[in-house]
Amino acid sequence: MSSALRALFRTLKTAGQRVAKPLQRGDGPNKFDLSSVDTATTTYEGDDGWAKRPPATLECPRCGSDILQHNARDSIDCPRCVAEFEYEEFTDLELLHLTCPICGSRMLHGQRHPEQFDIPEWATCNACRYHWEFKHSYVGDR
Ligand SMILES: [Zn+2]
Ligand SMILES: [Zn+2]
Questions:
Q1: In a domain, 128, yes or no
Q2: Could you say which ligand is closest to the alpha carbon of residue 127?
Q3: What Å distances lie between residue 99 and 22, 90, 92, 120, CA to CA?
Q4: Which ligand is nearest to the CA of 65?
């Protein structure tokens, strides 16, 4: 694994922990401790890119039921009522949670650029450590 990749994984892990903790004032995005090496031996499993997004559970805007969208390119059909949406309409619906494709746990998800994107940009599974990332280019804009 290249050192750039290792640095990325460290950043991902640190970012996940930051979100899981209560917000701390003054804890800016540039204060990652890049000297930490504790992830070097961590088993890491993950994917990136929207096409590999974990299954999402959305809320039906008509009847409030959970709609499972297995794949980012699947249409979004409510199992209880007639509501039906194209995958492009994902951002119009309320995202309840993502499901870990490895172990089936609910994942923690969040955004890195809420002002630019209307979609989750990362999701992490606390049960099996699977991590999904929308894309990697954010690493360069710090
Ligand atoms: Zn419905
Ligand atoms: Zn998992």
A1: yes
A2: 2
A3: 23, 16, 19, 13
A4: 1
Task: Tell me, in angstroms, the distance from the centre of ligand 1 to residue 57's CA.
Answer: 13
Question: 11 alpha carbon to ligand 1 midpoint, in Å?
Answer: 38
Distance 79 CA to ligand 1 centre (A): 7
Q: Which of 6-20, 27-41, 123-137 comes out lowest in average pLDDT?
A: 27-41
Ligand nearest the Cα atom of residue 98: 2
What are phi and psi for residue 124, nearest 5 degrees? -135, 145
Range from 23-32, 46-55, 79-88 carrying the lowest mean pLDDT = 23-32
* Amino acid residing at 119: I
Q: How much is the average pLDDT of 65-71? A: 97
Asked if residue 4 belongs to a domain, the reply is: no
Number of structural domains the chain divides into: 1
Q: pTM to 2 decimals?
A: 0.65
